[in-house]
Design goal:
2 copies of one chain form a homodimer.
Chain A (H helix, E strand, L loop, with lengths): L5 E7 L3 H12 L1 H8 L2 E8 L15 E2 L3 H4 L7 E4 L7 H11 L3 E4 L2 H18 L3 E2 L10 H8 L5 E7 L2 H13 L3 H10 L8 H4 L2 H15 L9 E2 L7 H9 L2 E12 L2 E12 L11 E8 L3 E8 L3 H16 L24 E11 L4 H11 L4 E8 L5 E8 L2 E2 H12 L4 E10 L3
Parallel strand pairs in A: 1-2, 1-4, 2-3, 4-5, 5-6, 8-10, 10-17
Antiparallel strand pairs in A: 7-9, 7-11, 9-10, 11-12, 13-15, 13-16, 13-17, 14-15
């Protein structure tokens, strides 16, 4: 440990976020020191390749070839991990930091989603702390808000749009009538989507962030197997068009709530009312909608990614760590013992897209199956597409049970008039 | 001081917020203790009348007849002031708390707007702390977000809707085509407006909150004389209607930013694009739109008042105080020495409502005066009202200088055809 007035960092990873973090610290050091009450020092840095050309001068800092050695150095108070990945070096750094009683600051959602609960357990025994504001919703101070601002609330529900890639693609499909494939190509060109976008478009990245929020809000041990995860790859431009006509926009939504004493955690596309705030969250923005028993409904909107917004959150963690704002949470609350709700017991409205042969009685045969399964209809749109023998039938149901609509779809699917597997999208009130 | 594991409160004021705060502490004590790492104790309470009938049992707490004595008691760590008013007892409590090295927690915006800077100066010498999350935007953790979440950012601008009364009235006028007077009556009936609503509808309450945000964001010493303040009493239902037709909603907006090295602080009604998030902030909601150089644009929306949302913020302050999250800020930054910008040097779009005699050439005479003053027009609406001899002319300008449009209005006002003083509303991009 250094003297009480200084706070020394070991920064691992010099990608875009690492460089932006160092630049922010360099440019704002006076302000940051005043606000934290400490003299913050970048003591040492480490990355894969020392000799890579970089936009900052790294020679003013100690270079450490082995990142893990940073966690053992007595002159370092906190490790800032900005390399990513749930296992490998990032995991080793986290555990070694805690073992050596260093504070640990990370922007790594995969790591916290997988090991956050265990890390917190170790910390509570050892008296260290971890900070991960940047792991969820980039610049939006939602972690701080849940742990400090809303610390006294029972959180009733969290609804969120947490993946900028998906939100960019869905916005582009909505605003420019693009297909999913074309919007994905554009997202890659603009750097909003990775070369392999699976992690984002299949909803996995969103689910990582969701279980971190669930950990904080409900003390629920992160477990992706318990979370229903559905991505956006099946959304067609027709869905966007018909949803719009029915007064909705389609968003990839993360939900965490407690329903009938069960944890209801899920990630899937949903129709949100066009006039709602959630529908207006465009491009690569993120949004978090929290409802607390005392705070009531709160909405946070901001940049979910990007080097500078993420660095802004990393530095806020550095300052909180320097101020020794330790992170207590009741992860051992009873709620952690709650079972997870199965998606099949969801009750709500559904949007159903059917492609049918244009024959007499086709709508009647579909609606009679829905009726048999206790599903009543809110709206129906039936119209032809370019191939005159085929028609789209779009159905918006009233509230019904997911099990019933799945059963109905299984029967509808077997009708001779059904051309492709019916597509279902949930409707959520946000 | 108590022992290191306990944190004792003296609560002053048992109005709706005081009672909600005590109830929240009582109901959530286990969670709150786990999250703060301290054993939080309501040691003593004080209010005007001990014997008033209340929804909680106050007999389990010490009753202190003189609130100021609480600040001297050795067994109390923090004073929670929930009585209100910028002077009198609230002020005495604040200064006496700090003198006696107690932490001071308040929901009192008028107090912090008037004495917050001086209180911070004293605290910085004495090593105490004050907390006032509940003073601005009720349940929205905006104070915490500026001081912790965005602590490393340079804040470029703050735009905010901070007065629930005005927002309720404007929303009611918009949604139900009401006059200002009728909407105000309804707001009083529903408890959204005080019997004497001057403080709210004239924009003074908003200005108090704005200068607190300005203090935190820019270290700008609060001074209401430097803030341009205009309320909503001159907004007519016609303005709402024509604004809507032009694609805008009218909101009471608070703005704090730095423009050309001058502080631009103001409160006034403004036209906001109907499709913007700000236009969708309905009823008694509050919203804060922040732009930081690293965090980029962040939006916070939530309940701005009400007993429970306010109590939620008060308790978050109690927990932060218990965790000794002290409040450092660079109030002595250079920005405090910046001059304030005069409203006359604003550059932007303007909405102008004119009531004119229906004579030939009236529009030509108006537009020629605007033209002489370098004001070009975006849109013009001219149409009759019930009295056929009178017509409204609504003008939306392109960007121009406020001084120019005021000069133009002074000339237009003298035209024979002008029936009432022209009304000007600024257009803001939010």
């Amino acid at each position: 440990m250094n003297n009480a007035n200084s706070f020394s960092l070991g920064i691992v990873g010099l990608g875009t976020v690492g460089l932006a973090t160092i630049k922010l610290l360099e440019n704002q050091l006076d302000n940051i020191n005043k606000k934290s009450g400490k003299n913050i020092i970048i003591k040492a840095i480490s990355a894969k390749d020392k000799n890579k050309s970089r936009s900052i001068d790294i020679n003013k800092y100690d270079w450490e070839e082995s990142p893990l050695k940073l966690t053992e150095r007595e002159d370092i108070d906190a490790i800032v991990e900005l390399i990513g990945g749930s296992d490998g070096l990032a995991k080793e750094l986290a555990y070694s930091s805690i073992k050596n009683k260093k504070l640990f600051i990370t922007a790594n959602k995969a790591l916290i989603a997988k090991y956050g609960y265990d890390l917190h357990e170790r910390i509570s025994k050892i008296g260290s702390a971890i900070y991960y504001e940047a792991a969820v919703a980039g610049a939006i101070p939602v972690i701080n808000s849940i742990k400090d601002g809303l610390v006294s609330d029972n959180i009733i529900s969290i609804h969120a749009i947490l993946n900028g890639t998906c939100n960019y693609i869905l916005s582009d499909m909505t605003n420019n009538s693009k297909s999913f494939a074309d919007a994905l190509i554009k997202a890659k060109e603009l750097g909003f989507a990775e070369a392999d976008p699976t992690f984002d478009i299949e909803g996995i990245d969103s689910a990582h962030k969701l279980v971190i929020l669930g950990l904080l809000a409900y003390g629920a041990k992160p477990n992706l197997d318990n979370v229903y995860i559905e991505g956006i790859t099946s959304i067609k431009s027709e869905d966007i068009k018909y949803a719009d006509r029915l007064g909705y926009k389609i968003k990839l939504i993360c939900i965490a709530s407690i329903d009938n004493n069960k944890l209801d955690f899920r990630v899937h596309p949903a129709l949100c009312l066009s006039k709602s705030i959630s529908a207006g969250i465009g491009g690569a923005l993120n949004a978090v909608f929290l409802e607390g028993d005392y705070s009531k409904k709160l909405t946070f909107i901001g940049e979910g990614a990007g080097a500078e917004p993420t660095a802004s959150s990393v530095v806020s963690d550095i300052i909180n760590a320097a101020k020794s704002n330790k992170f207590f949470n009741n992860f051992h609350s009873i709620k952690n013992e709650l079972k997870y709700k199965n998606i099949m017991s969801r009750v709500g409205k559904y949007y159903l897209r059917l492609l049918v042969s244009d024959k007499i009685g086709v709508l009647a045969s579909i609606t009679s199956i829905l009726d048999e399964n206790d599903i009543s209809l809110d709206s129906v749109i039936q119209e032809g597409n370019e191939i005159q023998e085929e028609k789209y039938i779009i159905i918006l149901t009233h509230d019904c049970n997911e099990l019933n609509i799945i059963n109905a779809i299984n029967k509808i699917e077997n009708l001779d008039t059904i051309i492709i597997k019916p597509h279902l999208i949930r409707v959520e009130k946000i």
